[in-house]
Amino acid sequence: MRDVRVLVVDDHPVVREGLAALLGRAGFVVVGEAAEALSALALAVKTRPDVAVVDVALPGISGLELCRRLRRRLPETKVVLLSMFDEPEWRAEAARAGASAYLLKDVSAEELLAALRRVAQGENLLPPVESTLPLTAREREVVWLLAQGKKTPEIAELLSRSVTTIRAHKISAMRKLGAHSTRELIQAARELGLVPTLNPRET
Questions:
Q1: What is the SS3 string spanning the chain?
Q2: How confident is the model at residue 137 (pLDDT cuts 50, 70, 90)?
Q3: What's the pLDDT score for residue 168?
Q4: Which of 39-43, 129-133, 175-179 has the lowest mean pLDDT?
Q5: Are 116 and 108 spatial neighbours (Cβ–Cβ below 8 Å)?
Q6: Which residues pair with 51 in a beta bridge?
Q7: Which of 48, 49, 107, 47 is nearest to 83 (CA)?
């Protein structure tokens, strides 16, 4: 098999550089590294990697949304998501986003490398399953960004949607989670494991 070209996306330099070093020693070709979704997408379009290894919990646009965008722009690029969330619902959402694999961050180096090789050969290690998360993918994305302290206009710009649309997603999410304020919405989402604890500006 020819050398597998990999893009590494993680906002923690130590993790990102460690992954790149591990992949290089194992014979993979690391075509680039990125710390957030938009630069990762631009780099992917430029380098056309075989596989993108993406952290789910990226700042700004999440790894799940990056996965969706990569699959739309570069369907030949496979995506392996790395996450700290070990719930079936997250695996389901990863499948819905088009990922080929969903691995926990405490996975062994051998397991990670084996998964990357299998994915590069076209295997899907994450068969589609029914998601039981209470919010839609877009509602979760909006809540994720709210939890990082983003304001509605900022979210609209990030997601290329109108302010009215973002407000509608927020209101729908609040209704579904029984929240009456942004703070309550974020807290409810955290309790369900929909967003990590990031100590945002909850204003």
A1: CCCCEEEEECCCHHHHHHHHHHHHHCCCEEEEEECCHHHHHHHHHHHCCCEEEEECCCCCCCHHHHHHHHHHHCCCCEEEEEECCCCHHHHHHHHHHCCCEEEECCCCHHHHHHHHHHHHCCCCCCCCCCCCCCCCHHHHHHHHHHHCCCCHHHHHHHHCCCHHHHHHHHHHHHHHHCCCCHHHHHHHHHHCCCCCCCCCCCC
A2: confident
A3: 93
A4: 129-133
A5: no
A6: 6, 78
A7: 107
Domains defined for the chain, CATH in brackets: 5-120 (3.40.50.2300), 137-191 (1.10.10.10)
How many residues make up the chain in this entry?
Answer: 203
